[in-house]
Amino acid sequence: MNLLSLRSEIFKALTNSNNDEIKSVERVDPATTTSGFRLKVTTVDPMGEDRVWFIDFTEES
Q1: I need a surface site. Which of 33, 38, 49, 58 has the fewest CB within 10 A?
Q2: Quick one: pLDDT at residue 1?
Q3: What is the dihedral of CA 30, 28, 44, 48, to 10 degrees?
């Protein structure tokens, strides 16, 4: 799976299941593992409440 497909699948999963809208995406370091990175995704639900999601990406050896 390429990065564009992965990005699309992540956003679809976050927004479609909750009817949320993406507010921001930022890279947050360090990740919980030694190799990789973490994304912090903030969404807004239909009631106007923010939700924060953390997605960890790790490298396989």
Answers
A1: 49
A2: 56
A3: 90
